[in-house]
User: What shape does this take?
Amino acid sequence: MSFGTIRISWLLPLCVLLLAGTVAGAAVESSPSHGDQSSNVWTVEQVVASLKEGREPSVSFEEATYSSLLTEPLMVRGVLRFTPPSTLEKEVLEPYRERYVIEGDRVTFESERKRVKKTISLEDYPALRSFVEAFRASFMGDAAQLKKVYETAVEGTSRQWTLLLRPHDQAGKAVVDYILFSGSEGHIGTIAIHAPDGDRSVMTIRRGPVK
Assistant: This one.
C-alpha cells in the first residue's frame, strides 16, 4: 500500500478533492434530469454529474488506517484543499502535523515529526500516476475513461449511493484491491480503500465550515 513515503491511501482522497473542485464547468455525457431521481437507480454517469453540484474548495476529514503492522487503528484528522487549476493538498492536523501536496506531476511530502520534506515526480511511480490521471480525466466528466481504468459498479439512488472501483490492469491491482465511495446526491461521505494485503483506510468527509 506504499511506495516509500508515498501512500495510495492519501493520494486517492486528493484525487477526490480534484473531482469536487474542477468539474463545475465540465460537460457530462449523461446527466441526471431535473426530475425526482430519488427512487431511480443511478448510473456511473449520474454519480459523476451529481458531484458538480456539491463541490467545495476545502473540507475537513477524519481517516482511520487499519494495518497488520498496527495494534490499533491509526486515526488522523485534517483538511483537504483544492486550489485551481490543479493543486491538491491534504494537511494532517491531529495527532501530528503532516502535509501532502500534488502540483501537476510533482508530489511533496512534509512532516514535522519526521523532520523531512521530500518531492517526487509521478513519472517515477507509474501506478500512482495512472490513478491520478484516471481521476482527473474521469471526474472532469469523462465516465468512459473511468471505466477504461476501473471495473465500476454503482448501487443506490440519489439519496444514498455507492460507487465501487476495481483496477483493470495488474499494476493497479498490485496497489489497490478496490475503492468504495459512498455518498448522497452530489456529496461524498466516505472513501474506503482496500489493499491486496488486507490493509485498509476509511476516510470520512465532513461538510460545513473548515475549522
Q: What stands out?
A: DSSP finds five helices and 13 strands in the chain. The longest strand covers residues 74-83. Residues 167 and 173 are 6 Å apart (CA to CA).
